[in-house]
Input
Amino acid sequence: QVQLVDSGGGLVQPGNSLTLSCEASRFTLRHYAVGWFRQVPGRDREGVSCISSDAANTYYSDDEQGRFTIFRDNLKNTVSLKIHNLKPEDTALYYCSANLYPVPGRRCLASEEYAYWGQGTQVTVAS
Output
């Protein structure tokens, strides 16, 4: 059974950084394309970043270029998302997702491309 566990969320002040982690159990995450998404109540789930299985390709939403960094740690079997210079509008429930099959280009920012999802980790940015 494929299982993803999101962690690293919390309450942070604007301007700080935060690293979210997506850990896989019972499968090897490096074989999967992975995406990070976020959602606020009343709005659709939004893709913020994704990484190919070989880590050769990374993509970010147009609105967040430069503030997000996605990376793999194959020894830990994780994919992490670092958010720099946090803003109140970053407040959301963040989810990681995985797909065994390659997701071409920026389509990896689309939630319908993924079969497996973590439970979400809440990020709240406030003074």
Remarks:
- The mean pLDDT is 94.
- The CA atoms of residues 99 and 114 lie 5 Å apart.
